[in-house]
Amino acid sequence: MSFIYENSQLLKQLLEAASQDQAKISRIAQAIPDPAKENLRSVLNNLKSQIKAQTEGQFIPSQDLSSDHFTSLNSLLAWMNGQGNAVKPKDNTPPPEGDVAYPNDNPQYYVNVEAVKNYLASLQNNAQLKNNIKFQVQLLKLIKEANQELNVQLSETPAIPQENPILDKVPQNIIPNNNLGNGDKDLTAANLKDRLAFNKWLSDNNISFQNGNNTFGKSTFDVGNVLDALNQRATDKFKNATTPDQEKSAKIYLQALQNLAKSINHQLANSGSSTSQSNNQNNPVVLNQLIKMTVFTVQNIDFDNIKLFNETYADWRNNLTISQMKDKVNQDIDNAKTMVPGSGDIFPLTNYDNFKQQASLNTYQLALTLSEIVDYTGRIMTDLIKVVKTKSPNAADYLEQQLAGPQQSNLRFLQQMQNMAKSDKN
Known about the structure:
- The protein is mainly alpha-helical.
- It has three domains: 2-150, no CATH class; 166-275, no CATH class; 289-425, no CATH class.
- It is 53% helix and 8% strand.
- It has a three-stranded antiparallel beta sheet with strand order 1-3-2.
- It is globular.
């Protein structure tokens, strides 16, 4: 598809064809998980935005992008390798300035971190991809991995809303542990977007910080202490929220503070590794995507969706029991694929004859293994439902419908397969 970037007239024709929903170009829709018309337009718009001269550190894709490329950072970089100058094969020369060798233990590529960050950000901010739930969950996991492995410093949450809401009214003299005392200094999302913006807000409002009986001005106080105090205020606002708007504002406040603290290499108080669970759960984006995700269907068992759901929630939940159930499901999926070589990521649930044909000599064991996959994933989903209901009673309706309908249907079918397999043996 590299020729598309050299011919803007051709791209215009493709866009016009997409609007007419012509089948002959539907192949391009494979660039994202669901080959629907809106997704096709998204891909073509993404292509259009990237028609420019190929410069150092730029990523210009020339091959179709699929969901498989988003399973891990390594998969994405392997796909990006050689397309533009964002990712290049490692050789015996030093990496170009601004590039890093990846992975650390056995480098295969020279990676331009800024180019990878910009590409991920373009996908994150693409409004037409927002409703593709599976893609969004994959993208969130990938951004987290890129932050850890490449330090791209890309927020896992969407960009700060353009309306720039007021998040807090802060006293001019900030006193730790005086969390809900309002002042007259408006603190907005834009004031927290980076170090320069925050420093300007501190100076413009002549903010001081009180430690015990001592009061310090901006030139003498530690900015990290101020961020810690604001984080206390934001946490209390979240805990004491009584309306959805108040809770939403507190979440934006917390995330903005976390992003700012990270950018200046400050560890917010009470946010070390021992409390990573609470930090994850202050980020609502993952949760909002998971509650919309289709995990169970009556017609089949989708191993890919199940693994994506379980792994994402286990990482968010940071709970030993949930992690153990996730590992159990992953092992069962591997075992099921071994029993039915070439079955792929979707196992159909139709009738006993078809099931038996796929299972070969392992009909009973396969049915038992699939039952464990469905059962343990249902337990993980039940835990998510309990968590969601503490925040919003009706937000878990779609998950509950999946448990009551498709998940129970799967379990009944698989139990029937086990019973019939036993009868055959007798």
